[in-house]
Amino acid sequence: MKLSELTKGDKAEIMKVNADKALRDRLISFGVMRGEELTIKGCSLAKQTMEIEVGSTLIALRADEAEKIEVEKI
């Protein structure tokens, strides 16, 4: 399942990040990596952006970035 398919309040575990090296490195610097748990804090109306919490870090992602993150809903 893709991160972009989740809605506000959902929790998931990150399974894989299918991104180029630059984006993958940026996400890892925020704690977005395989095995981490995340919570969806909010989404824009058209789901063009979403806010996730990984650990104690809040991160805003664009829809195309969220498409590249595979998760398993908890």
Descriptive keywords:
74 residues; alpha+beta; single chain; SH3 type barrels; 5-stranded antiparallel β-sheet
Would you kindly provide a written description of the structure presented here, covering whatever features stand out?
- With 74 residues, the protein is of the alpha+beta class.
- Helices cover 18% and strands 42% of the residues.
- The chain contains two helices and five strands.
- A five-stranded antiparallel β-sheet has the order 4-3-2-1-5.
- The model has no long low-confidence stretch (mean pLDDT 95).
Helix/strand layout:
Elements: E1 11-17, H1 21-29, E2 37-43, E3 49-54, E4 57-62, H2 63-66, E5 69-73
Antiparallel strand pairs: 1-2, 1-5, 2-3, 3-4
- The CATH superfamily is known as Ferrous iron transport protein A (FeoA)
Mean pLDDT: 95
Alpha-carbon distance between the two ends: 12 Å
CATH architecture tag: Roll
The best one-word shape is: globular
Q: What is the alpha-carbon Rg in Å?
A: 11 Å
Overall SS class: alpha+beta
* Strand line-up of the largest beta sheet: 4-3-2-1-5
Number of strands: 5
DSSP helix fraction: 10-25%
Give a quick account of the main beta sheet: strands, pairing sense, barrel closure: 5 strands, antiparallel
CATH class: Mainly Beta
CATH topology: SH3 type barrels
Output the number of helix runs.
2
User: What amount of the residues lies in strands?
Assistant: 35-45%
Number of discrete domains: 1
**Unreliable parts:** none
* H/E element order: EHEEEHE
